[in-house]
Amino acid sequence: MKLSTYEPDALPPGARSLSYGVFCWLNRHVTVLRALGALLRRWPAIGGRFGLVARASAVKDVLMRTRSFSNTAHAANMVSGDYLIGMDPGPTYSADRDLVHARLAALDVPADSDVEAQRRIKALRGRGAAGFDLIDEYLMWVVFRAMRPLFGAATGAVVAGSVTDASKGDVDEDLQRQYMLEIRYVAGQLLAGSLATLDLRRRAEACGDALQARIDRVTGTIGAAWGVKSSSADIERNAVGLAWISHPVTVQSGALVVQELLGRQKVYDELWSLADKLGEPAVWADPEFRKIVRNHVLELMRFRPIFPLLARDVPRDTEMTTGARQNAGCPGGGKVSLLSIAALFDSRVVPQSGRYCPDRDWGNEDALRYLMFGYGYRQCPARDYAVEILTSALIGLLTLPRLQLARGEGKAIAYDGPLMLCMRMRTT
């Protein structure tokens, strides 16, 4: 198996730009990745030659073998420093994971996300038929409100980057927006991967430095709010990581969910009609309706996951199961790529995988349903919180008059590489 071990800066500028462009295009056209995945599932030996895995059983096997296939593949794209997503199992990983679980336990989801979704929807409804940006005027605020308890009493200091400024009262929305844009571009580097252009890397590094400086100034306040006695370095590492991974990744996932839903007009019409029939406030209080919307969120994420491709380092020579008759040899120092989106459509384990079916019975493969959040021990600890936040956000949008992309004034969706910057919407 031939595995590339180049450093991205060693690529000629033209080759880097071309590779990055292809990568971004594939992330926006996941049906192409699904088609490629179907071919590799049919002939897994071909994928094995190039370090590509597509069958669900093989993808799960790689993700479960954390010593043989390492998460450190993400480390090069994490411009703000170490965090769980780029660590191997060990004492530091375990301690950080415990801290993250403790902070997540402070969240009050879906109550907080429901409240903010209702508040933002009320404001949008008051504007009448005027268009709005789904990301900047809705999603990022719903997610921000739900994630505020991560920093507890230190939230204002983190957003302001100053204990003194935060002590003056609530941090205004302009500063909150600045903070959210800062962490957005840091997370954008993770989405872009090692093929990112130098300009994008420089911007991510500048935002990463700004985020580090922001956290450095208020580390003591964060530690006091968390009630932990860890070293300042431990607090800083986890505070930075919680800031840039929790918010922008959830926002991007929400935008992808809405994009996929609007591309399925019949599904959207059925959900909208059901919400309209229930009316407010029943749409927020009805547990059965929430369950229905939650199932749709998961199915929409299956069709358009935020990370359709995953990379893993190979620290030492090993073999990889692909589903072919023989395992693929993996030389140490290389990488393997997992087509997680292909695994989510593997008909061997997902009944009628090509059919949009939010009520599908996953049976003993229920864990695979959440593959967009990882698998096994390394699964994102905020999985259920993120799904509930997106459920709240989608319920809010279903209470508006019928939505569609605002295509009248240029492109409705603007991208910055693989990062969705805005999605202009209008009601009809």
Automatic annotation (TrEMBL):
<protein>
    <recommendedName>
        <fullName>Cytochrome P450</fullName>
    </recommendedName>
</protein>
<dbReference type="GO" id="GO:0016705">
    <property type="term" value="F:oxidoreductase activity, acting on paired donors, with incorporation or reduction of molecular oxygen"/>
</dbReference>
<dbReference type="GO" id="GO:0020037">
    <property type="term" value="F:heme binding"/>
</dbReference>
<dbReference type="GO" id="GO:0004497">
    <property type="term" value="F:monooxygenase activity"/>
</dbReference>
<dbReference type="InterPro" id="IPR036396">
    <property type="entry name" value="Cyt_P450_sf"/>
</dbReference>
<dbReference type="InterPro" id="IPR017972">
    <property type="entry name" value="Cyt_P450_CS"/>
</dbReference>
<dbReference type="GO" id="GO:0005506">
    <property type="term" value="F:iron ion binding"/>
</dbReference>
